[in-house]
Write a structure and sequence with these properties.
Layout lengths: L12 H34 L6 H36 L11 H10 L5 H13 L3 H5 L1
Helix pairs in contact: 1-2
Length: about 140
């Protein structure tokens, strides 16, 4: 079997179910073909000539195709598991689709101290008696 590579791409959430169904259907079609190939290999065994190079090659080829189908099913399992994990998580406070302006507005509303306040806080902390214990 050839080398495998993991890729990542995104689909709209409403398209995910159709994408997974397409993947499962492709595996099912592949397995249907493998059943026919396996029947043919079994037919060779029924003729008394199954201990041949041809039978060995056919069975090895079927196993390779089964591994390919298994990899595809592993991908399906991973996608569904990730989807279930995503759906079970609480919604985030900042939605990824908000946009830059909405995020800036939320940050301004958060009452983040300005640089002067931070510098004053650091100066006060350094001059406190407990600051020596922290730096040791």
């Amino acid at each position: 079997m050839g080398q495998r590579v993991n890729i990542q791409y995104s689909v709209d959430l409403e398209d995910l179910e159709g994408e997974v169904a397409r993947m499962v259907k492709r595996v099912a079609t592949s397995l249907d073909g493998l059943v026919q190939e396996l029947d043919q290999a079994a037919g060779l065994a029924g003729t008394g000539s199954c201990l041949t190079l041809r039978t060995l090659e056919e069975v090895a080829n079927i196993r390779q195709k089964m591994m390919k189908a298994d990899y595809a099913l592993i991908d399906v399992v991973n996608i569904i598991s990730s989807y279930i994990h995503y759906k079970s998580q609480p919604e985030e406070s900042i939605d990824a689709d908000l946009g830059v302006e909405a995020i800036k507005e939320k940050m301004q509303q958060a009452q983040v101290p300005d640089m002067e306040q931070l510098e004053s806080f650091i100066k006060d902390f350094k001059s406190s008696p407990d600051a020596d214990e922290v730096s040791d």
